[in-house]
């Protein structure tokens, strides 16, 4: 069976330009609130101690994670390949009054951050799976390394290859399953075929290798969510005490690295080695 034609290179940008105004509403859901809380708990231990340390939100979308960094007092650069997304982020930044002066907004693809000087950031977040969406994850990882200061940290998310296997098995197409297992590539399906874009998925091990080859020291790879709460949202619609119990269970399960294989998304924390190898 021949492989279907690859989507146009700018399909992802087209899609994100179109949905920018509705993007936050798409993810206004108890599951994504739970998912975000898990994500932020993994970020918080790596916030720079120096409040003047520059941070970056790659694939910023409407600015969710960059705004958290900005609110924490860090000078923050917001980067997205969609100009419409950057404009949504800009509107939210401007609502922050004086803190907006610490924000820089840039339209750029994470595979080419040449507009950003080397060794600029102590912390970079790349949430919402821009590594999976971009055209060249290896180039993106190298750019993250180049723009990270020695001793600085990158925290990025990606789609989990193992979680997508059920989709191909349920379709009953053995050719498509074999192709996916070999390449890890699939498509984001939208109603408009012109907006369908290719995704690269990773296993926990392949995501780790991607960052190690770029020069990083990998501190950990976590899965989100390990518990199947997305299919059982009623658990998240109970009281706050129930949500706290579920968060505690996620953190307990995550202590076993193998648990990440169950999750839909992976979150990697990687550090650029300090100059001279010192901590």
Notes on the protein architecture:
The protein is of the alpha/beta class. The chain has a single domain (11-110, 118-269), classed as Vaccinia Virus protein VP39 (Rossmann fold), CATH 3.40.50. The chain has helices spanning 11-19, 23-26, 30-43, 64-71, 83-94, 130-133, 137-147, 165-171, 174-183, 204-214, 240-253; strands at 55-58, 76-80, 103-107, 121-126, 148-159, 185-188, 197-200, 217-224, 265-271. The strands form two sheets. It has a seven-stranded mixed β-sheet, sandwiched between helices. Strands 6-7 form a two-stranded antiparallel ribbon. Helix 7 packs across helix 10. The longest helix has 14 residues, at 30-43. The model is unreliable at 1-5 (pLDDT under 50).
Summarize the helices and strands and which ones pair or pack:
Layout: H1 11-19, H2 23-26, H3 30-43, E1 55-58, H4 64-71, E2 76-80, H5 83-94, E3 103-107, E4 121-126, H6 130-133, H7 137-147, E5 148-159, H8 165-171, H9 174-183, E6 185-188, E7 197-200, H10 204-214, E8 217-224, H11 240-253, E9 265-271
Parallel strand pairs: 1-2, 1-4, 2-3, 4-5
Antiparallel strand pairs: 5-9, 6-7, 8-9
Helix pairs in contact: 7-10
- What number of structural domains do the residues give? 1
CATH T-level topology: Rossmann fold
Q: What is the helix/strand order?
A: HHHEHEHEEHHEHHEEHEHE
Helix content: 25-40%
Summarize this structure as a short list of keywords or feature phrases:
alpha/beta, Rossmann fold, two-stranded antiparallel ribbon, 11 helices, disordered N terminus, seven-stranded mixed beta sheet, 9 strands, single chain, 279 residues
């Amino acid at each position: 069976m021949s492989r279907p034609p690859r989507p146009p290179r700018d399909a992802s940008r087209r899609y994100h330009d179109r949905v920018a105004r509705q993007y936050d509403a798409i993810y206004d859901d108890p599951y994504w609130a739970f998912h975000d809380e898990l994500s932020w708990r993994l970020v918080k231990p790596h916030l720079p101690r120096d409040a003047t340390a520059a941070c970056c939100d790659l694939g910023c979308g409407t600015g969710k994670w960059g705004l958290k960094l900005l609110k924490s007092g860090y000078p923050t650069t917001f980067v997205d390949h969609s100009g419409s997304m950057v404009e949504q982020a800009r509107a939210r930044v401007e609502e922050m009054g004086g803190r907006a002066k610490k924000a820089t907004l840039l339209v750029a693809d994470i595979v080419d951050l040449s507009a950003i000087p080397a060794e600029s950031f102590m912390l970079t977040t790349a949430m919402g799976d821009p590594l999976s969406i971009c055209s060249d994850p290896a180039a993106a990882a190298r750019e993250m390394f180049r723009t990270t200061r020695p001793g600085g940290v990158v925290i990025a998310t990606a789609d989990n290859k193992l979680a997508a296997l059920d989709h191909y098995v349920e379709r009953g197409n053995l050719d498509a399953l074999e192709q996916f297992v070999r390449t890890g590539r699939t498509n984001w399906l939208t109603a408009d075929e012109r907006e369908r874009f290719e995704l690269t998925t990773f296993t926990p091990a392949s995501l780790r290798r991607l960052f190690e080859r770029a020069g990083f020291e990998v501190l950990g790879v976590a899965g989100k969510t390990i518990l199947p709460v997305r299919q059982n949202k009623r658990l998240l619609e109970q009281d706050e005490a129930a949500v706290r119990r579920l968060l505690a269970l996620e953190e307990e399960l995550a202590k076993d690295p193998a648990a990440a294989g169950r999750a839909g998304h992976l979150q990697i924390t990687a550090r650029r080695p300090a100059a001279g190898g010192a901590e």
